[in-house]
Design a protein that fits this description.
Length: 49
């Protein structure tokens, strides 16, 4: 997996991106759920803007 940026400058987005770090601890079969959670969180953050 490529390196994730340290910060985006947006607190909520940074928290969502940081949550992706747990992928390395999970079996590949559980990655989809993590990506879907991140996508939903990013989408909600954009909708709130």
């Amino acid at each position: 997996m490529s390196e994730l940026p340290e910060e985006t400058g947006h607190e909520r987005v940074d928290a969502i991106v940081a949550g992706l770090s747990r992928l390395s601890e999970l079996p590949v079969g559980e990655h989809v759920e993590v990506f879907e959670e991140a996508f939903s969180g990013l989408e909600a953050t954009l909708d709130a803007q």
